[in-house]
């Protein structure tokens, strides 16, 4: 077992100063981290990759930051990968708690807000959410396939930041 561990340590450059890592060691570290990250994402949840909310996007940013340290050698290799698994597990635990607690879900993921009602733009809500009239019109054309906000019964800025539209019924 010692021979295996010593060989693995040499190949991955474990215990080596970051400046002394070779191209091959950094590359192999990257490959190991890639596979570990794929396992983490499978243990996480599909919606995390869709970055549906800031809650999900934060996981990806933090995970990338932590795991990059395993590749570049600025932190202990296996401890850093283990920390990545713990972060994914904790995110999943918070997401589960948010499923059962609406107030926690609002805290972690935010709440949708109505920005158009019966064809009228609610400018204070749009301003608070940094949605300009031009942003709204663009999403209206791209997502609702209509030209005028007058055709919209309700539009909401969702927790993800996307804008959803419900058109008025045709007369």
Give structural notes.
It contains 8 helices and 4 strands. With 171 residues, it is of the alpha+beta class. The radius of gyration is 23 Å and the shape is elongated. The chain has helices at 2-12, 23-43, 46-49, 54-72, 77-100, 102-109, 123-128, 133-143; strands at residues 113-117, 120-121, 152-157, 163-167. Helix 2 packs antiparallel against helix 4.
| Distance from first to last alpha carbon | 77 Å
Helix/strand order: HHHHHHEEHHEE
Order of strands across the biggest sheet?
2-1-3-4
Average predicted confidence as pLDDT: 90
Query: Strand percentage, roughly?
Result: 5-15%
**Count of folded domains:** 2
Helicity range: 55-70%
Radius of gyration: 23 Å
With helices defined by DSSP (H or I, 4 residues minimum), what is the helix count?
8
Please write out the topology.
Blueprint: H1 2-12, H2 23-43, H3 46-49, H4 54-72, H5 77-100, H6 102-109, E1 113-117, E2 120-121, H7 123-128, H8 133-143, E3 152-157, E4 163-167
Antiparallel strand pairs: 1-2, 1-3, 3-4
Summarize the structure.
The chain has helices spanning 2-12, 23-43, 46-49, 54-72, 77-100, 102-109, 123-128, 133-143, and strands at 113-117, 120-121, 152-157, 163-167.
Index terms:
single chain, 171 residues, CRO Repressor, 2 domains, 11% strand, elongated
């Amino acid at each position: 077992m010692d021979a295996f561990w010593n060989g693995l340590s040499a190949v991955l450059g474990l215990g080596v100063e970051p400046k002394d890592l070779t191209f091959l060691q950094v590359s192999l570290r990257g490959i190991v981290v890639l596979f570990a990250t794929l396992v983490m994402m499978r243990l996480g949840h599909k919606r995390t990759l869709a970055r549906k909310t800031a809650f999900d996007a934060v996981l990806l940013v933090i995970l990338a930051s932590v795991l990059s340290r395993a590749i570049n050698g600025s932190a202990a290799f296996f401890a850093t990968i283990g920390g990545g698994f713990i972060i994914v597990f904790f995110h999943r635990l918070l997401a589960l708690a948010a499923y059962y607690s609406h107030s926690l879900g609002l805290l972690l993921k935010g709440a949708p807000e109505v920005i158009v009602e019966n064809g009228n733009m609610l400018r204070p809500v749009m301003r608070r959410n940094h949605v300009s009239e031009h942003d709204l019109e663009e999403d209206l054309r791209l997502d609702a396939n209509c030209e005028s906000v007058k055709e919209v019964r309700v539009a909401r800025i969702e927790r993800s930041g996307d804008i959803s539209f419900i058109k008025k019924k045709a007369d």
